[in-house]
Design goal:
About 55% of the residues lie in helices and about 5% in strands. It contains eleven helices and two strands, in the order E-E-H-H-H-H-H-H-H-H-H-H-H.
Length: about 200
């Protein structure tokens, strides 16, 4: 996952726009178009309102281009839409977060993007403790990476089963290794006062 290159750059004439795939943009665009596939279809078929929506949500502000697109109606465009299709589709894909994580998640029971983005919001505000404004401005990739960092930190502090580590509990299988079982049994032995004696 590349966090530094999340923003998608679009050059139109003298104007350069940077589209940031925030959670807010993902939520709004997905709901407005009832799915990203419909939004991409609108982009490919040249619906100017869709172009304006993507640019406005990605930049978080109006621009000369969005004003132009909002008022263009049926007038011929000076700007070639072909130059915008690729970057806009890249931006829409980045609204989904980490592609590899999405593939892994799809192996379980499928959820809607609305549920997925709601879960990301919960992770950001609940698990990570970010204020709502920070959660809305973060990208799905940033939230997922920060959550991964938090879980690694908690595992480091409080311990967790690592691959190949036989001296840990695996509650998911209901199994306890022989070494752990011996330590747990020894804890009830009042003649042993230190862990060295327990393990001895």
């Amino acid at each position: 996952m590349q966090l530094a290159s999340n923003d998608v750059e679009i050059k139109v004439g003298r104007e350069t726009l940077y589209l940031r795939p925030t959670l807010r943009a993902a939520f709004r665009l997905e709901q407005k178009y009832d799915g990203f596939e419909k939004l991409i279809r609108a982009i490919y078929t040249g619906h100017l309102a869709a172009y304006g929506d993507v640019i406005r949500e990605g930049t978080g502000q109006r621009s000369a281009l969005t004003d132009y697109l909002d008022n263009a109606g049926d007038t011929p465009l000076v700007v070639s839409l072909d130059l915008l299709v690729g970057p806009m589709c890249d931006f829409i894909v980045s609204l989904t977060g980490d592609a590899e994580a999405a593939v892994e998640a799809s192996k379980g029971s499928p959820i809607s993007f609305k549920e997925y983005h709601t879960k990301l919001y919960r992770l950001a505000t609940g698990w990570l403790g970010w204020p709502p404004a920070a959660a809305w401005e973060a990208t799905p990739a940033e939230i997922l990476e920060a959550y991964q960092g938090r879980t690694e930190m908690l595992a480091s502090i409080f311990g967790g089963k690592k691959e190949g580590d036989e001296n840990t509990l695996d509650a998911t299988k209901g199994e306890v290794s022989g070494a752990i079982r011996a330590e747990l049994n020894a804890l009830g032995n009042l003649t042993k006062t230190t862990m060295a004696e327990v393990r001895g």
